[in-house]
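hey so i finally got around to running the thing on that chain from the lab meeting. sorry it took forever, my laptop kept dying and i had to restart like 3 times. anyway pasting the input first so we r on the same page abt which one it is
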Amino acid sequence: MMTTFAHILASVDPAQQGSAIDRIKSFVDALCAPYYFVPLTTLLLVIALVSYKQWTRPKAALLVFVAFTVFYGASMLDEDFFKIIKKPDNVPITMMIYFTGFCTWLGFRQAAVNDDRMKRGEPLIESGADDKVLVWPDLVYTELIALVLCTAFLVVWAILLKAPLEPPANPTNIPNPSKAPWYFLGLQELLVYFDPWIAGVLLPGLIIVGLIALPYIDKNPRGNGYYTLKERPLVISVFMFGFVIMWCVLIVLGTFLRGPNWNLFGPYETWDPHRPAALLNINVSDVFWVVLPEKLNVAWWKPGLPSEASFGIPAFLVREAPGIVLLGGYFFALPVFLAKTVFRKIYTQIGLIRYAVFWLLLSWMFIVPIKMVLRWLFNMKYFVAITEWFLNV
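ok and heres what got predicted. didnt touch it at all, straight out
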């Protein structure tokens, strides 16, 4: 940990080491590099799941809220940061951060109270609640009031924040950066690491399938109809990781940290369109057939991608064999190993079919951060790049 923070401090721009405020800004910019930002947010989520009974207490939650609001408000004094958040398209991001935080706190607070009550043998919050509501007049009045309030809110929003409408498409005048609407920024970020058929079709489809399948994967009858974390920790943790890290955090990353040419910038950095583009990315096949032979300098292992068929196997399959082996081990061998070790209890509880569906969803969810880290640290692009078949993973 000390080494990591020393590296962050070393990456602080010396040109910005003027006043204490400048040094803090430069430190935050360095800390927001994605290879720190995403792991740190993941660590915060893990801490939140483990200590949900402590941080959901009203005083602790209020302290976190006030601290974040003060930090966020102070950040608005920075010209570059304020330019980002004042854009009409980016205003919902601020709302999303606060609403997600509030809803997360509310759910986990009720879960903490229920878990404590179950431990003491007391009735749950939801026990004895009468949820029956008459359509007329109760439900109709409630919907009418909600309709009026929502309409008034949208009218005020439309007056204060002009719709960010662009002029007709002009190939000679392309916005830089060209970003999708805020709710699609997570998918646009995935396009950096995956082919469009994976980032735009497969992964969103698995999100929908996963949301449908989660209640059936975890067949524990306890925890239905009331808030709890103790009764269903695995499924809730997986859902929170997928929603918070793989969706909300990617939206924040695409909003605040992606600038011109889709380069990464700190939240207090000026978006310089002339910053050099990222280095050339490499595939697993390049590492195995070119980089390793050069590094090891073995006489019989000559650097170069295979260009001819071997033993009747097409050249592109020989070329991509290392990546195919890696993916095969990840998707097929690893779940068998985990079922006999770490996930033995889970496998016994849910059975083969549910475990297979569970691993399918889990493996694709975790391959996203794996590819992100490999891209950020080693410029790794694809495990398998069969351009002849337009199949890149």
